[in-house]
Write a structure and sequence with these properties.
The complex is a heterodimer of chains A (about 200) and B (about 475). With about 200 residues, chain A is of the alpha/beta class. Chain A contains 8 helices and 7 strands. Chain A is globular and about 60 Å long.
Chain lengths: ~200, ~475
Amino acid sequence: MKQKFDIIVSRCVPLPLENVDTDQIIPARFLKATDKEGFGENLFRDWRYDKEGNPVKEFVLNDPTYSGCVLVAGKNFGSGSSREHAAWAIAGYGFRVVVSSFFADIHKNNELNNFVLPVVVSEPFLARLFASIDENPKMEVKVDLPNQTITNLATGESERFEINAYKKECLMKGYDDIDYLLSKKNLIEDYESKRDMTWK
Amino acid sequence: MNTLFDKIWDAHVVSQLEDGPSQLYIDRLYCHEVTTAQAFTGLRERGLKCFRPEQIYCMPDHNIPTHDQDKPIEDEVGRKQVATLEQNAKDFGLSYFGMNDKRNGIIHVVGPERGLSLPGMTIVCGDSHTSTHGAMGAVAFGIGTSEVEMVLASQCVLQAKPKSMRINIEGELGKGVTPKDVALYIMSQMSTSGATGYFVEYAGSTVRNMSMEGRLTLSNLTIEMGARGGFIAPDEVTFAYLKGREHAPKGEAWEKAVAYWKTLRSGEDAVFDREVTFYAKDIEPMVTYGTNPGMGMGISQHIPSLESVEASSRASFQKSLNYMGFQAGERLLGKKVDYVFCGSCTNGRIEDFRAFASLVKGKKKAPNVTCWLVPGSWMVDQQIREEGLDKVLEEAGFVLRQPGCSACLAMNDDKIPAGKLSVSTSNRNFEGRQGPGARTILASPLVAAAAAVTGVITDPCTML
């Protein structure tokens, strides 16, 4: 999963719905695994397959018109549960970027911790991106992490996105937070020694 | 600045990364079976031990069946997940409250009732409803599995400090109006993303007058408006609740702890990034009509019309009503109900069963309703029996099940069948949450009880 991140140019998969919750991304009945494998197969399971397990033709992941490693979703993506399985499903399916005008906090962290980049864009930018995809499903976006910009290559419109310097470096170099925390054990012990922890 | 949130957060910052997150020290980590196995695997792969095993408590709750708990779990995959947690707890030297342990129950019910969740603490768990523990006056929030691994390895997480919001609720709640209704009302006003990026402090006379159980319900639902957590400054209600509980400080340590806890309040001059006020008089028993918890309304109200919804949200709104099988503009009163679920980390505490029992006392369960009553823990189960509520429920035709998360998210066998309408005291009405195709109306234990005896959506105020 630690795939280093730089510049991505890709087609988009549009999901123009708001409040896509983590129960839709990966339903609870698929959370029983004790490893991180195979979640991509059940990404958006109940929208993607009918009760008999046949693909729902109209659902975007089953529509051959659309492809690419960039998922474009309506606002408030990833609300609900903290299940990291949602991020594993998105990464496992092959998405490397999710674009929306708003992300739920826990899910956003989970994406970042799995080297999936959540790109927050303005609502007008998002609306025009959906329109561009609608007009030409083969259009591409350029996601440039070093410069923190996303460009709609159909219109040339570009927008800057935010990411903190620490997380940006992690993504670009393939580090994770545990590597960092383990290097700070002395600080943690020092902190504990200075604090009253009688409640323990 | 000078908010209680600042005080607790700042007291736990080990270091601050430049243009990055805080390295935040975690006092308590809770582990359940669904979101931890991969974190323990990560630890093994890195050849690490738990850094502070004595601060970590494990218990299975999501997969636990609500009957025959003395027998092995029938579902093989669920059984393996629970066994994996037990093995991990053993291998890493962590406290474990297993399925046949009388300390078992839903992690967010057990933590407070055992005195493990205390004022001033930082508390995390791989579960969004960790916000529940905020009711004790703690900064408590849900994290992902990678972050669980961070805490196992270092007792720290890297987190950007959220903004602060104070939500004041003022006045006396009307008859039949419960803390669940307060939370559903706030969500209906704030939407499911209205508090994203914030940590919420609840204040005001309505909150001060709530019992600990009510405060736990309110804090529990904070995540449903997008906030990472919500908390309530500790007061005499908190101290009275905690005194004498198993893991709460004792003797001299108790006196010292209370003296410290009394300092845990926002300053008179505290400045919040956002502050909002709601009034108890505006709140009636609530029901949801859509597929997120923000789609709620007073039980006597009509579902909003399509035109009243923002243009960009109409497709999602209509999709939601289509799923529920409801029409814009209609009322829900009188709708036939198939299932009633009372339980979960939101409403699975003793007060919730007192409320449910008070309404069904002397009445009979409606024949068209299947009702699942699931205590949040074995301690709650014991309280129910000590107070004789089990007899009241039994006489009215109800059966008490065994503790667990149950139909809140249907990871065990308690699944609502496709198309059936459920009135549920849980926290999420997402599509398929209670089983594929299940349709969920979120409500208080009183609304659930009224539906259980009348067989239709009924305003409990007409029955009290």
